[in-house]
């Protein structure tokens, strides 16, 4: 069991590594901010379709994955509608200056965290099924993919002036949910294996919703549409390249 924990812990910790370079830039120009957001959008799009593809491969019916996708998107939409911005502002320790301003940062964090839960379950199920090589392979693969996802969380938070300590805390929470999910997957492998297609669809739907509703519009909001668009493509290429190398 300790091997499951440490493998998934290191995979989750890679999320934190991806955020660190951005945090220590004193000032990020608008063009660079939009590029970071565009890159984050590309990473999330590619990661979403990876999750959906995995769900359809291991599931008995693609309808289960589609149901998860729709429920995931609706969940994040409702979450964004019912949670007031002043809660985000107080937690992030920044002044609230406009309605909806912090939804991008908060929903992006939520989507990445939801995405990390089924990834942790996959690692746990791999070990729990007795195939330790599969569990280790999934942990290494997910860890490498997690690095750019740290940037996904950090970019909108940095843009809103959130203190570095709070950004690191949120990125760590999003990443370290993986070992918790992995241990659950290891202990309840039979139950979790049946739920994985829906969970993967749920996470994919949540990420696609946030990307379309928040990340892409925000990256196009300062006149650097071309920069943001090519950064998005680079984000997709980055994730596709990782998949091609690792699988």
UniProtKB/TrEMBL annotation:
<keyword id="KW-1003">Cell membrane</keyword>
<feature type="transmembrane region" description="Helical">
    <location>
        <begin position="58"/>
        <end position="83"/>
    </location>
</feature>
<dbReference type="InterPro" id="IPR003689">
    <property type="entry name" value="ZIP"/>
</dbReference>
<keyword id="KW-0472">Membrane</keyword>
<feature type="transmembrane region" description="Helical">
    <location>
        <begin position="167"/>
        <end position="189"/>
    </location>
</feature>
<feature type="transmembrane region" description="Helical">
    <location>
        <begin position="195"/>
        <end position="212"/>
    </location>
</feature>
<dbReference type="GO" id="GO:0005886">
    <property type="term" value="C:plasma membrane"/>
</dbReference>
<protein>
    <submittedName>
        <fullName>ZIP family metal transporter</fullName>
    </submittedName>
</protein>
<keyword id="KW-1133">Transmembrane helix</keyword>
<comment type="similarity">
    <text>Belongs to the ZIP transporter (TC 2.A.5) family.</text>
</comment>
<feature type="transmembrane region" description="Helical">
    <location>
        <begin position="6"/>
        <end position="24"/>
    </location>
</feature>
<keyword id="KW-0862">Zinc</keyword>
<dbReference type="Pfam" id="PF02535">
    <property type="entry name" value="Zip"/>
</dbReference>
<keyword id="KW-0812">Transmembrane</keyword>
<feature type="transmembrane region" description="Helical">
    <location>
        <begin position="36"/>
        <end position="52"/>
    </location>
</feature>
<dbReference type="GO" id="GO:0005385">
    <property type="term" value="F:zinc ion transmembrane transporter activity"/>
</dbReference>
<feature type="transmembrane region" description="Helical">
    <location>
        <begin position="224"/>
        <end position="246"/>
    </location>
</feature>
